[in-house]
Predict the 3D structure of the following.
Amino acid sequence: MKHVVIAHPSPDLYGSDLQMLESVTAAVDDGWQVSLVMPSDGPLAPRAAEAGAQVRIADFPVLRKALLHPRRLFGFLVAAGRATVAARRWLRQAGADVLYVNTLTLPTWVLAGRLAGVRVLVHVHEAEEDAPLVVRAGLTAPLLAAHRVVANSRTAAAALARPFGALARRTQVVYNGVAGPPGPPSPPDRGTTVRLLLVGRLSPRKGSDVALEAVARLVADGRDVTIDLAGTAFAGYEWFADGLAARAAEPDLAGRVRLLGYVADRWSALADADVVLVPSRVEPFGNTAVEAMLAARPVVVSATQGLVEIVTADRTGLLVPVADADALAGAVARLADDPALAARLADAGRREALDRFGVARYARELTAQLDALLQTG
């Protein structure tokens, strides 16, 4: 049996994690034996095992931009060297045919795969357009050792090619495949309160702070609006989550904001929402926007990166400038004042998401990439 090892940086259940589960399912259905390697245990492990993967926990470093600082880089390089040796040895013992490295943050696995003589595919979920060129080059350089690269959007593919034009020739765009709700979505139960939802990590990139300021503006205009934030912070970003909690407790927002933490049942959260916000400053794709569309909820998204590849302005959702709380509030008000528009966007968005971002299409395109590596091995 053909054997693929998937190296993944996180044990959580956010966008790239859930997409990796779709990759596991696609590979298993295509006849692959799948081994998943992660640096720590967490809620992803049982889900992956249920999908058919053999899960292994191993100690290896995950590259974050903060580690590219000279004082931190040496420690990372030492840990990376040790991890590369161990990963190379294990790949040979495991008899892997293909190594699938999920995200840019695992350069040790790319090198280990090449040293072990295994065909290497890297699946990129990042688009670091705002970082200095030296940082982008450092994050992207390991991909030059990969045999094949998959990017989850045209934006992500273009970002890879800017530091190293050679990557353009080996990169294929495969849009994420997002599973829909377990049953047909029901229309929002519209009441006097406009219920907003933002699903995602609590981080500056996701624009949670912009969403709270938009709610404050709506409340100041006399509108009855609430917002749920469904997500947790990355380690090291607790300060941002604390800031959101403090802002939510201020008089103009008191009682209007719920910090839900991680929400396992996204579909129930979406069913309770009238409008879904994706006010990201940076978003290479945007699974949460697709999920909202599949749930037949109107979306308001930032006009940035992969989000403009998902949402067509005034046809499948509303687009607003990045980090513009006034524009975000105005878009919500527009939907609240025009229920027919909200329903039309939700209906068109669902049809578009089913057509362009389905899991069957994703499985076909991804397994074609894996099978191609065997054929050129």
Q: What stands out?
A: The mean pLDDT is 93. The longest strand covers residues 33-38.
